[in-house]
Design the sequence.
């Protein structure tokens, strides 16, 4: 009797423990089920867990037979993504002007869909700039498995023209519900990663028995740090995440705001060559450097915000040298300068609001105007006038320098 | 507004100067380029000032814009320090090499080459080329 009671107690405790495990860790429970032949688990393995400056990662695993498997890969490192929603409402025709922004976008994201959906991706690619993440997700039946970016924290601001003028992002609105957050995260994915191939891949072969093989290429410019790989059949049936570490070493460095790794020599040589040419043509290098950097894939906000301060120093020395010979009219410079300061207050806000397409379009036209100005400066009439002007400029400068010298000597 | 420069007096039409400078500054800080190539024609053609007045004063005006624009971009989190540290010495190097090479080249040829280059870049940005 005593023994029976003890057995009963042991049984009771084990059951209770099981219930506890059931309540606290649903993942473990799933594994328990998986050990029985219900086949509701996904196993996953990668060929390497350490990468240096990116590389190819081979992924293998097994899922329940006959089910579609999707693989999500994302970086722990995060970057910013932003988008202004100014598309007219299909019902009311009103433009919402809501600015969505997150600082939690993974620096790298890839959703690998089964091979059979390759045509969906091709279709999206054929659409050019008009492709949409949500459409691809819908057409590849990936709505249930699209997971990680759907949960990132996205802030949204109600923007107005006035708010933009005073340089504010607008009023911060209440957080979105889960569904809306998911929808907006898809738009931000596109805003940040631009092309279909930067978000999706169909490099995933599934066999009839449920084993699958996939590969993902981490580009050489990928962020360093941890990468997570998860295979999913649906929302609940998924593998445990596998962690892969990517390391980056000098001369490659990671640009945290731009969200990519670069070899320091390339931007250095590019900048040096372009600024040299900029001096030759009499316009700053930014006109050529910025579009090239943007076309190379850097975010236009970071390009504008980082190239601009590089000329501060040279402008400062220029002003100092001119002021030494009293070659600056302060009244004129400060008056126009204050107007420019007001412009400089507004401009950076607008950089944030516009899309890459708008940036390219506007910059394209600015360059055409600049090219026209330059052409005008090579016409014979202008050259003749300029020759005289330059001669006067030289003469004045000479006098100014002499005067400054004399004053200096007189002061001693 | 009347200004005096080395004993000469000039009239400045602020109705053109201020809106022009303001708009150039918006474009310049928005896209992150210097406003020089637009400010100089504005002051030469729009304000009818001679080049010797323009060179120094336009630089001062642009400096206001660059300073404000840089602060604003920094505030919005658009500034990448490491990227800056790579580009900054390169820009200084370019500023040192440029004038040395410039002496040996015909400025008109350089401008024409630049013209073609800018047009190609523009068409590429507009998705035509």
Sequence:
């Amino acid at each position: 009797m005593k023994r029976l009671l003890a057995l009963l107690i042991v049984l009771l405790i084990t059951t209770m423990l099981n219930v506890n495990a059931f309540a606290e860790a649903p993942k473990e429970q799933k594994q328990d089920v998986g050990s029985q032949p219900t086949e509701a688990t996904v196993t996953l393995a990668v060929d390497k867990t350490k990468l240096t400056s990116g590389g190819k990662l081979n992924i293998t695993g097994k899922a329940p037979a006959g089910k579609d498997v999707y693989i999500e890969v994302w970086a722990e490192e995060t970057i910013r993504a932003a988008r202004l929603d100014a598309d007219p409402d299909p019902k009311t025709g009103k433009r919402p002007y809501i600015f969505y922004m997150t600082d939690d976008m993974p620096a790298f994201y890839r959703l690998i869909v089964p091979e059979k959906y390759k045509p969906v991706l091709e279709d999206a690619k054929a659409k050019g700039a008009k492709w949409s993440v949500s459409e691809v997700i819908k057409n590849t039946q990936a709505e249930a498995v699209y997971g990680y970016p759907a949960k990132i924290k996205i802030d949204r601001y109600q923007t107005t023209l006035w708010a933009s003028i005073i340089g504010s992002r607008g009023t911060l609105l209440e957080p979105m519900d889960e569904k809306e957050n998911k929808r907006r995260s898809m738009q931000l994915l596109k805003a940040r990663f631009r092309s279909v191939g930067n978000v999706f891949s169909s490099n995933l072969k599934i066999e009839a028995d449920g084993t699958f093989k996939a590969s993902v290429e981490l580009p050489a410019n990928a962020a360093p740090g941890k990468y997570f790989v998860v295979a999913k059949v649906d929302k609940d049936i998924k593998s445990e995440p596998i962690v892969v570490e990517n390391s980056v070493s000098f001369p490659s460095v990671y640009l945290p705001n731009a969200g990519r790794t670069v070899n320091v020599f390339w931007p250095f040589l590019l900048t040096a060559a372009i600024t040299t040419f900029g001096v030759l043509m009499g316009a700053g290098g930014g006109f050529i450097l910025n579009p090239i950097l943007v076309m190379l894939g850097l975010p236009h906000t970071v390009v504008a915000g980082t190239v601009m301060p590089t000329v501060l120093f040279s402008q400062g020395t220029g002003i100092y040298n001119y002021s030494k010979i009293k070659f600056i009219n302060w009244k004129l410079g400060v008056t126009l300068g204050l107007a420019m300061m007001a412009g400089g207050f507004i401009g950076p806000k607008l950089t944030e609001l516009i899309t890459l397409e708008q940036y390219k379009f506007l910059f394209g036209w600015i360059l055409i105007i600049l090219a026209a100005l330059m052409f005008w400066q090579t016409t014979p009439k202008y050259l003749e006038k300029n020759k005289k002007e330059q001669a006067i400029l030289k003469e004045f400068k000479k006098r100014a320098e002499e005067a400054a010298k004399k004053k200096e000597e007189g002061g001693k | 507004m009347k200004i005096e420069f080395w004993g000469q007096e000039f009239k400045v039409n602020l109705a053109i100067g201020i809106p022009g400078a303001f708009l150039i500054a918006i474009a310049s800080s928005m896209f992150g380029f210097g406003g020089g190539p637009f400010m100089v024609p504005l002051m030469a053609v729009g304000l009818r000032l001679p080049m010797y007045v323009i060179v120094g004063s336009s630089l001062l005006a642009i400096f206001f814009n660059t300073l404000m624009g840089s602060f604003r971009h920094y505030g919005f989190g658009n500034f990448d320090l490491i990227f800056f540290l790579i580009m900054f010495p390169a820009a200084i190097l370019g500023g040192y090499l440029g004038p040395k090479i410039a002496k040996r080249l015909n400025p008109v040829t350089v401008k024409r080459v630049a013209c073609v280059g800018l047009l190609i870049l523009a068409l590429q940005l507009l998705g035509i080329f």
Chain A touches chain B through 113 residues (CB under 8 Å). Residues 19-38 of chain A have pLDDT under 50 and may be disordered. The first strand of chain A starts at residue 43 and ends at 46.
